[in-house]
Amino acid sequence: MNNFTFLISTKIIFGKDTEELVGSEVKKYSSRALLCTGGGSIKKSGLYDKVIRSLEENGIEYIELSGIQANPRLGLVYEGIKLCRENKLDFILGVGGGSVIDTAKAIAVGVPYEGDVWDFYSMKAKPEKALPVGDILTIPATGTEASISSVITNEDGMYKRGLNTELIRPVFSILNPELTFTLPDYQTACGACDMMAHTMERYFTNVENVDLTDRLCEAILKTIINNTPLALKDRSDYAARAEIMWAGTNAHNGLVDPGRIGDWASHGIEHELSALYDIAHGAGLSIVFPAWMKYVYKHNINRFVQFAVRVWDVDLSFESSEAIALEGINRMMEFFKKIGLPVTLSDANIPEDKIEEMADKCTNKDTKTVGNFVKLNKQDIINIYNLAK
Amino acid sequence: MNNFTFLISTKIIFGKDTEELVGSEVKKYSSRALLCTGGGSIKKSGLYDKVIRSLEENGIEYIELSGIQANPRLGLVYEGIKLCRENKLDFILGVGGGSVIDTAKAIAVGVPYEGDVWDFYSMKAKPEKALPVGDILTIPATGTEASISSVITNEDGMYKRGLNTELIRPVFSILNPELTFTLPDYQTACGACDMMAHTMERYFTNVENVDLTDRLCEAILKTIINNTPLALKDRSDYAARAEIMWAGTNAHNGLVDPGRIGDWASHGIEHELSALYDIAHGAGLSIVFPAWMKYVYKHNINRFVQFAVRVWDVDLSFESSEAIALEGINRMMEFFKKIGLPVTLSDANIPEDKIEEMADKCTNKDTKTVGNFVKLNKQDIINIYNLAK
């Protein structure tokens, strides 16, 4: 186990009707907020009206930035920064899914910065301050509600890049599982895969002696595996929705980081897919992760055996580690298929003609490697895309 | 799952040599600290000198309150409060085990209060403010390093009582597993039992649909069960010590609370034992918990089956739930014995003549019940003490 510092500073307010507390939470920080929203679903569900009422009851003035879509674009981030500066808004409230909250975070870190906020995403500069961000989460998936991450796509070249800094960890997040009852099944499944991916990026590490965090990872994975089919069977299953939602937060809030070094290659490889083909991140991950696993499992077969046995209940003869490891990967693919996700590029109607271009972007023209469990170069990434065909 | 609020506000600094950071952490809050310490072990180990050096290098003036013992007494808390007031100290630093840190917390909440600090422990008053507390933990056990709890014994009547308030959650805690290499085996074992007890107090709940937190509890328990024998076999096994230490924090920092209502009867029943006979809290718990389980398991046999199967790998015929449940309890007792803990009152040379007196104290003369999983009255508690004979 490596040395580590641990502090999850986001206050989580979880459960039924908790969205009504949003105004009183914002008020602790500011009386002038930018309200970031997505499409019309929060208006249809009535959530929007509740938020506005709560803000008004607490004397919060707000200006809205709406229309934030999946794989959120830099253009709207610029627009949000401008709105904040022009109107002296000093709190960013995101109400929606990961894209809305990631946009809120990008705006929060962009407002006090004199340069181009994309500098932070392209690693040209490091942020030093940010406005506080709060949110109401409607799509459990990215874990952004309590994470230090934000992922934005630059339309100029379709680069999808992430920023990680404690500065953008939300000061509060409101999570009401009831708000997820109306999610389409496909989005529920994509969310489940995204959470699993966050957990697995940590799970596959070269750091030894990480027993507790291994087991915490397994707890999160099993919870998602058991509860996602229940939520798909009955969209209004509060218990299942609550388990999924809370698992999603814990998959990415830092709980399963202590003392380990994560991999994150699959996220990088997937980002090229969803930047180019605009598929859901979770659906990209259900394609990339199995291929990545098949490509790297021999690097530490015992870790894949543990994954197969503890997470997927594989109970084959331990004389064949390889068979156990592969059966674990196989069961994961079967699970993804069962919940309606693609597991190959062709499942998602993604052509093969841009594999080299994506591998180039992912490795900055083969000038850097991707991942930590196994460091992958451009050819490795081409091989992984090919395994995913 | 019930609604909940979640925020673990303690910054954990974990790993080798981290004690050297203590001065710079204190400095973020104050330049005048009360330094609380226990017996001479931190002087012998060299930790004391390192702490003093780090405080001095960071310009922290300090006054020491030493001699804090197991089952810490109210008398020293009064003395600490007096020292702080007389010397205008506004940060409390605990360096030691749970007793030292619990004393530090009691002083922190006592200094700004005009009345008697015992009012908070006897439920006569609720604290409204406290000085910040930080610590270096040397005995992984109570989880106080990131918890909202402090337990103090009032010598006047030997009442051992707890206070729970967010105000006393440490602002930072420094955890270096190397500092635990010199712990006597018995203290290592008592600590392991205390952590397991914290987890089990949460595990046995009447709240339904708590899948993720169940699994997180099981992860913590299995980590302690697997690593404690390794630490006892080789006291300097860093990996095992680190797992135990981090498990102990997670057992009591609030990670396994969300959405559940814990029981806490066994802690109440044990407190009467250790207040009266001055045995280690962990050793009292290894006596009380099995008896409590035998007394209540029929209340929700399926939960005890889950505990037996998932935590203790019991693999009997599922046609007999009762056999599985009892085998789980049996394996827990065997584990406690294996690591050198008592599992009966006679193992700890505790006489039977004060059972009624203890049951009286525990239930305030049968005017209140104890526990939530099953609400226990005075007679129930007598029965449990008798089961522990």
Automatic annotation (TrEMBL), chains A, B:
Alphabetized InterPro entries for the sequence: ADH_Fe/GldA, ADH_Fe_C, ADH_Fe_CS, BDH-like
Taxonomic superkingdom: Bacteria
Residue ranges that the Swiss-Prot or TrEMBL entry lists as coiled coil: none
PROSITE patterns xrefs: ADH_IRON_2
UniProt keyword annotations, A-Z: Oxidoreductase
CDD domains on file: BDH
Keyword flag Oxidoreductase: yes
Fe-containing alcohol dehydrogenase-like C-terminal domain sequence ranges: 188-386
Segments forming domain Alcohol dehydrogenase iron-type/glycerol dehydrogenase GldA: 10-177
Name the UniProt record assigns to this protein: Iron-containing alcohol dehydrogenase
UniProt organism field: Candidatus Clostridium radicumherbarum
